[in-house]
Write a structure and sequence with these properties.
Distance between the termini of chain A: 39 Å
Strand content of chain A: 25-35%
Radius of gyration of chain A: 21 Å
Number of strands of chain A: 14
Mean pLDDT of chain A: 97
Number of helices of chain A: 11
Largest sheet of chain A: 7 strands, mixed
Oligomer: homodimer
Low-confidence stretches of chain A: none
CATH topology of the largest domain in chain A: BirA Bifunctional Protein, domain 2
Chain lengths: 303, 303
């Protein structure tokens, strides 16, 4: 994937400053202690932004059950982004054959078998099956945070293969789920503004696969099911999405059997902070050394 | 994999208390806010335990480059534990065929292709290739922390498929690398002791695959290349390794081209804290509610 001169410069600056440690795989980086302290600061800020209302917390690992992935519909819409986990279940003879293939530089993965897990494509996906059944009156609000994977190798530092999301999720009636999402758009924009990031809320669509995908994308935009908070990073590139607000309507509730206290099919929505992307936007805006960022930004992150 | 009555009881207690949220995949759990606050407390304690000496920090994501994995030798020794990441690179026709396979409950993964990443098997592995070249005089000390994956589905809560490790790594001459490891065994045992966990340092071996693996395991024990800090959790089961101390000799340095300032092939060693395992040991020892743990343990974790 080609990358603009501005993004190539940003990447070079962050690599030279040892903020990002490049690896053989595009979009897979080590992060410096400074980078991580920004992510930690953001995590705290995001939690404080939601602390005025009761919310449950749960953390899932970077892999989720294959059964949950298969049911989620992700494979229909984004097959090219998936990470399917495969392992070896053979005997010593097939192990020897596998090593011989590695040795001669051939493909060695043909004999692997799918494991019972997939890489997690979105941090809220593992949550829904654990909420199966009838919701309490007033629904549920849950915050989740963790690693996501999307297979899109790129030299653009904003397009990482492995990245972290922090989501506020609502499981409730249709109006309440929509209101949750729209309320968080305001909160998210205000939070990013405190960090010196000017953002705009825009209707958006996911990168659905293929021709049928173009229809889905158009429909998602028409119904305003997805909004993003985007920031302009440089003049070469389109604005970058730092937060994403999604109405799933009854998709996950139908799939995993989640009902409101009234016995209706629930709706779900989520608002996600892209932790690595916001950190990169801050590094691009305020420079590669967080110790030298404006005092107001520092005190918001590390009160 | 069978699990002892004691481990089944511990799992049931933690699930009932909603400390662990089970999923369809054995060994893949959601973690409660309480569980995570223990992990965060441990991270701080582990960092303070090493704060008297200069150390570099870097954090890698849960996936590492396939090239690094292939070079590491992991596939020779632990093929059954690997997580190879595969994705879809076909056209719309093959996508339709893939979805038809999912729909009819058949295997749908045959047409996937290996991605350029693998799940990270040990938190220090991504580090070594980034240290290629000549070390400064005095070597390097680096602490790393992150998610690891091992494909060993089990109902034993101590055997998770996805778990976190925090490692202190030395890259230096042979004596210094060995001393680093042995020094950390003392520090690790003392740290765990402060948390009310009685541990013993024992010679150990990795679960090498197959018949040839038995020889490697025996040799690893004879040379005392691996030591573990183990704790007895219950009377049904053998003690559990909470920390692992490893001498790699020149294995990673030869593989990735790391030399000492004197121009010799370097040695590497690491000492790893099993963050999820230590948290589980604390929950088993002090009960499922960290708010009610002994004051000394709480003040060590959350000073």
């Amino acid at each position: 994937m080609t990358v603009s001169p501005a993004r190539a410069r940003l990447r070079a600056t962050l690599v030279d400053a040892r903020v990002l440690v490049p690896t053989d795989a595009p979009g897979v980086y080590g992060r410096s202690a400074g980078f991580e302290s920004v992510v930690e600061g953001l995590e705290g800020l995001v939690l404080r932004a939601g602390a005025d209302r009761p919310v449950e917390s749960v953390r899932f690992p970077p892999v989720l059950p294959r059964t949950v992935f298969e049911a989620s519909g992700y494979l229909e819409s984004f097959p090219d982004l998936i990470g399917s986990v495969h392992t070896f279940a053979g005997d010593e003879a097939s192990h020897a054959a596998l090593l011989a293939a590695v040795e001669s530089g051939e493909s060695w993965t043909d004999g692997l078998v799918p494991a019972d897990v997939m890489l997690c494509p979105a941090v809220c996906h593992p949550l829904y099956p654990t909420c199966a059944g009838t919701l309490p009156a007033g629904g549920r609000r849950v915050e989740v945070s963790g690693w996501c994977f999307r297979h899109e190798p790129s030299e653009d530092p904003f397009r990482m293969q492995a990245f972290r999301q922090h989501d506020y999720v609502a499981l409730d009636g249709p109006d309440e789920a929509r209101r949750h999402r729209d309320d968080w758009i305001q909160r998210g924009a205000s939070l990013l503004g405190r960090l010196g990031l000017e953002v705009e809320a825009v209707a958006a669509n996911d990168p659905f696969f293929g021709r049928a995908g173009r229809l889905l994308a158009a429909s998602q935009r028409t119904q305003e099911l997805k909004l993003e908070l985007v920031a302009r990073i440089d003049d070469d590139d389109p604005p970058v999405a730092l937060c994403s607000a999604n109405s799933h309507l009854d998709h996950f509730a139908l799939t995993f059997g989640i009902a409101t206290a009234d016995g209706e099919v629930a709706h779900t929505s989520c608002f996600g902070f892209g932790l690595d992307r916001i950190t990169l936007a801050l590094l691009a805006r305020h420079g590669p050394d967080p110790d030298r960022w404006p005092a107001a930004v520092r005190s918001a992150l590390w009160p």
